[in-house]
Amino acid sequence: MRRRTLTDREARGLDLVLVLLAAVMGVGRELLFPGTERRLLQPALWICVLVQLAGAMTLWWRRSHPARVAFVNVVLNLVSPTQASPIAAYSLGAHLGLGWRSVLAFVAVLASWMLGAQLWKLEDMFTGPVVLVALFVIGLYVTARRALVDALADRAERAEREQALLAARAVADERTRIAREMHDLIANRVSMMVLQAGAIGVSAPDPAVRSASDQLRQTGIRTLDELRGLVSALREPGEEEPGSATAHAQTTVIDIVAAARRAGLDVDLEVNGAPRAMSDPSARAVDRIVQEGLTNAAKHSPGAAVEIIVSHDEDQSLVRVRNEPAAAGDDRGLGSTGAGAGLTGLRERVRLLGGTLESGAEPDGGYLLSASVPHHTISGPPSPRGRIGVHARRGDDA
């Protein structure tokens, strides 16, 4: 919260009060305690009165021109020490701060005041100089405190802005996470439904069943297109770096392969070894790599055989998903529904775990997805997701 500052009207009112106060005190002192013979130039009384009034008038500009006000009072002090000099000294510290100009002006005010009053002839030689020094120091303190309060206010405002930016970033990250999860948890399952409907349409002898399965397949494809639009809307405009998805369906590689086989895919699964201790994020990443590989094979190479090899070493798991070239031609309807977020999000997920993921077409027209996923060893029993020496051939019920 910003410190309260005087309005222009309040500041002008305060300056007017100080002008009147300095004028009354200065004229009163000259009239009640003339002592013109003790002045350096020994001026007439009426000249001393005019000097006090002139010094008081300069205080009107003490905020905007503190150094000039001080030097005018330096000249006036040589005639008669003005009652405006202490206020001028305070204004130097309060409105000019600590610097060579303010120090030079203050030394000039102090010296002229002492010289004009012929301090060495006074009984009290210390009160006047002490008051001037004290007011100058108080002015410097006011300046320092003002700067400190402004700095703290700026820091608080900056912290609030940063907090707002962090909140906005959190919202953006959550939108991206939702988009990833929608692709991971919905698009893959809908793709399987479309494939199953297509398989029914090909094998069913009843024309009505074939027509219904075709309608179901077309509805699923339209659903994937709408899902892609919704995912794009949830992602931040201009987003390039994908976020990571943290939630995942709690299924194992064998469950995923079994579901793919029920959908009509020709899958060969081989799982070698078992991790001594695999963290849950690493286990989910392995599952997601297999699921993404199967989904992409179903979309872009329908009817092609898919080979999956999962090898668990002591500290990492190697996943290899390869599909043969399309046997029945690319399913353009299903193949065009990808939002492009699956492999991108999966690559980011593996990168965050410290692993690598590579994908690309092979010379014979097939497609290979391979990854290495560190286990990030944790305390506790090994993950139940690992299987020792499992080799599930096509057609197995695993």
Quick summary:
By secondary structure, the protein is of the alpha+beta class. The chain is built from 11 helices and 6 strands.
Structure description:
The protein has 398 residues and is an alpha+beta fold. The model is unreliable at 239-250 and 377-398 (pLDDT under 50). The chain folds into 2 domains: 8-125, no CATH class; 168-392, Heat Shock Protein 90 (2-Layer Sandwich), CATH 3.30.565. It has 11 helices and 6 strands. The chain has helices at 8-32, 45-58, 66-79, 85-96, 100-116, 127-203, 207-234, 253-262, 280-300, 332-335, 341-352, and strands at residues 266-272, 305-312, 316-323, 356-361, 367-374, 390-392.
List keywords for this structure.
Heat Shock Protein 90; disordered C terminus; alpha+beta; single chain; 398 residues; six-stranded mixed beta sheet
Topology:
Layout: H1 8-32, H2 45-58, H3 66-79, H4 85-96, H5 100-116, H6 127-203, H7 207-234, H8 253-262, E1 266-272, H9 280-300, E2 305-312, E3 316-323, H10 332-335, H11 341-352, E4 356-361, E5 367-374, E6 390-392
Parallel strand pairs: 1-2
Antiparallel strand pairs: 1-6, 2-3, 3-5, 4-5
Helix pairs in contact: 1-2, 2-3, 3-4, 3-5, 4-5, 4-6, 5-6, 6-7, 6-9, 8-9, 9-11
- Strand order in the sheet with the most strands: 4-5-3-2-1-6
Overall mean pLDDT: 77
CATH superfamily of the largest domain: Histidine kinase-like ATPase, C-terminal domain
Q: If helices are DSSP runs of H or I spanning 4 or more residues, what is the number of helices?
A: 11
> Strand-and-helix sequence, N→C?
HHHHHHHHEHEEHHEEE
The profile of the biggest β sheet is: 6 strands, mixed
Structural class: alpha+beta
Distance between the termini: 66 Å
Overall strand count: 6
Number of domains: 2
Write down the overall geometry. rod-shaped
CATH architecture of the largest domain: 2-Layer Sandwich
Beta-strand residue percentage: 5-15%
The gyration radius over C-alpha positions equals 43 Å
Low-confidence residue ranges: 239-250, 377-398
* CATH fold descriptor of the largest domain: Heat Shock Protein 90
Query: What would CATH call the class of the largest domain?
Result: Alpha Beta
